[in-house]
Amino acid sequence: MRIFRGSDEGLEEYDKLDKNILYRLFSGVGLFETMKILNGYPLFIEDHIDRMDSAARKVWGKGIDKEFVLRASVDISKYENNIGVLKVILVEENLRFFLFFVLDKYPYSYTAGLRLKITEYERNPKSFSSGLKPLSYFDNVVLREKSNREGFDEAIVLSGGYIAEGTRSNIFWIKKDKVFTPPLELGILKGITRTKVIELCKSLGIEVQETKEKPEEILRSDAVFLTSSLMGVAPVKEIIFLSNTQSFKNNDFAFMLKEKFSEFERRYISDKLGFISTRSSPHRKV
Fold first, then answer.
1. Does this model's pTM top 0.70?
2. What is the pLDDT of residues 244-264, one digit of tens each?
3. Which of 86, 89, 116, 216 could cross-link to 100 by cystine, CB 3.0-4.6 Å?
């Protein structure tokens, strides 16, 4: 793992933190974005920056330096030639923003055949942090780690008794060649990959509906998949809710979407790298 700090003077690799910033980090006062790096470029970086900027304006009434974050993210990602992870962290103190960029290894050895547990934990759609990515992801982290210890890959939470989202993913299900996903009004994150998959489905002539469904209805689906910035499209093989278990053996539809989305990712990276190669913008030292 490598950590870089961004300032008006540029980027510097960081091995220590100011005590005030450290306190803010420990208090969870900040926002973050996580994205996959492919071939040295951060995937859908513009969308991530726009979401962080929008969240900062909602929370603190001021935006971030989007151009600086874009340049820094692209520069730092060049250190990972294959596949990796870039996390952009925004910390606030007295309405001053401090940016940190964390370069890390890709965490997944597989992104298909997942086992899910639907919990009885409820999201609060009226929470101030609803729909945001705050540093204080306590609930999500604890629920995910608990589900991992129980042998599951992800935990699904509810909102008003309806299926909401995973601790680090959005959820979709398929019934009779139609794709369904929970609406944003349930307090879920407007995932970057969620949005891209909805657009992809529509381009393929696949109907997508945002709808509220109880856990029991999800168990009667033909197939289920998750989406996230790191996993992309991740087909599910089994869901457990209370004492009920449902396996999905015919998940061809979800695997087709997984492949189509992977192609979409590769086209994005190819376009970006082609764009960069035609510009005389040398790699900045950090």
1. yes
2. 999 998 789 999 999 999 999
3. 89
